[in-house]
Amino acid sequence: MNQLTTIYVIFGLLLALVVFIGFPFIYKGMREIFKKTSFQTLGKSSKIRVIHQLNEAVTFLSREHIGAIITIQMKDNVEPYRTDGLIINANISASLIISLFNKKSPLHDGAIIIENDKITYVATYYKITDRSVDNRFGARHRAALGISDITDSVTIVTSEETGKISIVRNGKIKRVPLKSFQNELHKYLHAEQNKEE
Fold it and tell me: How far apart are alpha carbons 156 and 69 in whole angstroms?
């Protein structure tokens, strides 16, 4: 009986120790599971506005064959994986995006990062993926793949050569016709929310 009590006490202490040591990891894991994407934290009208402004900007960039890379931060923080660039924290607008990627702009190279409904960084760079990529895709697509390999971000790329639009997420490039871009973007940005519902 005494030996059984000792075993229970030791087991209880070990269990308490495991919970005590493991709690921060369990808590962090649970927070990650239930954390909303930065896009999900926006109200309905803000979400509509962001998608509309992006659609307007990408339509212009595509038609004018202006190369661009636009990353929308989701759950994972993109900042640790970027280099250079400027912090601007500006409200998202099609006219601002278009002017940033204008070839005469000193900030036209690199990517812009959108968090919630703000353009947080401009002229920033990502590590280009070292995976084998189809020759049709250039440096912008490779950079978009690079950031999509390590975060859950959604990146829009417009090709300077062809004007074609691609959406990159989870290490996959999807070519999107201009006429269906807005609907496709809506699907990508609401993917996490739809999974949870």
Answer: 6
C-beta of residue 58 within 8 angstroms of C-beta of residue 176? no
User: Which of these, 112, 110, 165, lies nearest to 140 by C-alpha position?
Assistant: 110
Q: How far is CA 99 from CA 53, 61, 66, in A?
A: 13, 10, 11
**143: nearest Cα among 130, 134, 162:** 130
Q: What confidence tens digit (pLDDT) does each residue in 37-78 have?
A: 556 667 777 888 989 999 999 999 999 999 999 999 988 888
pLDDT tens per residue across span 161-195: 999 999 999 888 899 999 999 999 888 887 654 44
Task: Give 141's DSSP letter.
Answer: H
136 vs 119: CA distance, rounded Å: 29
